Amino acid sequence: MKPKEALKIAPPPSPEEKAVSPYDIIICRAGTTGCPHAIINPKPIAEKIEALLDKLGLGEHIKAKAKGKLLYHMKFKVALAGCPNSCPQPQIKIFGISGQAKPIATDSPCVECMKCVEICKEDGAVQIIDAKPVFDYNLCVFCEDCAKVCPTESIVIEKKGAKVMANGKLGRHPKIANVLKEFATEDEIYEVLKDVAEEYMNQK
């Protein structure tokens, strides 16, 4: 009979491994080099998110669960996008946001230049009907492009904020994140994050 192999015990983590961040927080270029599509700046939000997660004890929780080398799949993944283009893919992260801006029609006369319709990438989201912009908010992604090109302020932005998403992932059982809040203020982003992080710790 072959002798049984000795049980392999993982060595304790090195100081370098302990220093590895338990979070993977990525932001779009709106927070670094700048972006013409940016509605919100994700960089200061990212810094506050990391501080909040540390305060909640999530980092220590993840490191304790790792019991050794902290691998990528163990990290709490966050993606922050400045606009609905969502370049860092918040839809597949544990927590994510994307900037939003809601356009509305005003009483300012529309000259029917059709610039808003031409620039809109969502077919039917904005139309000119009876010399007035009309929006279908079920189609609109709230990018504010139409308001930017309107020469008469017939279209303006009523409010800006963030779409807040959670519990998305890839891997063996991929899942698109749930939308938890639309047009969230910065304070509301942190409130939702706190709930998501606490639920994450309870599940893991």
For the biggest sheet, the summary is: 5 strands, mixed
Radius of gyration: 22 Å
Strand content: 15-25%
Structural class by SSE content = alpha/beta
Shape: elongated
Q: Could you state the order of secondary-structure elements as H and E?
A: HEHHEEHEEHEEH
CATH class: Alpha Beta
CATH-assigned homologous superfamily:
Sulfite Reductase Hemoprotein, domain 1
How would you sum up this structure, described in words?
This protein has helices spanning about 15-20, 40-55, 60-65, 115-120, 145-150, 185-204; strands at about 25, 75-80, 95-105, 125-130, 135, 155-165, 180-185. It is an alpha/beta fold and about 200 residues long. The chain has one domain (about 25-65, about 75-204): 2-Layer Sandwich (Sulfite Reductase Hemoprotein, domain 1). β4 and β5 form a beta hairpin. α2 (about 40-55) packs parallel to α6. Residues about 5-10 have low confidence and may be disordered.
